[in-house]
């Protein structure tokens, strides 16, 4: 019976000795002492493994959130760029065929400057991983070439295009309405919401800073509305 009892302890000690245990036990120590050491060490091994798994899961979740954030920023700026590009092409086309070229040209210089500041600030503050670092550059280039592209198209069809015709008015009205809807959406959701609702500086800022920002917003809207009298 004594031999069977001792052998049973040996089996228990072997079962408790898992792959996580890397400490060498004293072979000359009594069997009960070795079992006690293994039992005391086993919860610590489990806690260490759980901690490593938790850290790995946290890193993986952080990587996914960064990718999702980058994708959301790219989609938002793409919608904004699409509306601005369509609007800029129509402006360039109008400039090329309009009789009041000088007045319209001066107005468009200011119009495109203010619009470019808005788009450029959004592109400059994009927080993207290194593999998406080209996105702001492409966005700036697309904005820079759209108005000249519209002017080139207008110059090409200047002799045949009649901006006062019924067909031209319908097409221009539909495209303007489409572009306006996109710009209103992106202005409210992608620009104002991000600058006022999700910006930590504005959330933690003083009332004076908030009032100053709202005043600048109203001033910008007023200037663009004034320029819209000619555009």
From TrEMBL:
It is found in: Membrane. One of its GO terms (cellular component) is plasma membrane. Residues 11-32 are annotated as: Disordered. It is a multi-pass membrane protein. Keywords: Membrane, Transmembrane, Transmembrane helix. One of its GO terms (molecular function) is zinc ion transmembrane transporter activity. Pfam families: Zip (PF02535). The keyword Ribonucleoprotein does not apply. It comes from the Eukaryota. The chain crosses the membrane at residues 74-97, 103-125, 137-157, 177-198, 210-230. Its main location: membrane. InterPro entries: ZIP. This is Uncharacterized protein. The lineage of its organism: Eukaryota, Fungi, Dikarya, Basidiomycota, Agaricomycotina.
